[in-house]
Amino acid sequence: MDSAHATESGHVDIKLFYRKETRGKKPIRLYFWAHRHDFVVIVQKLGKSTSYLVTSFYITENYKRASYQKWYDNYRKGTDPALKGGEWF
Hints:
Blueprint: H1 3-6, E1 14-20, E2 28-34, E3 39-45, E4 52-58, H2 62-77
Antiparallel strand pairs: 1-2, 2-3, 3-4
């Protein structure tokens, strides 16, 4: 799926984006950010299996909202070479 299609969540309140993590094994995670409701769901593929790790939480800090917006904007630009071919869902 290319980034033009991946960002189409089907709902105006959801900003969908992939992001390569900066700690640990550096997995690529899929974020569903309900930006108007300060809620995020994160999905991570577990290795080569068909299993996924999911977490969700409310965003309560302004600096975190700013981080999610930055990550979303960077993803939309399509300039992160680490994500080339990394979209898996």
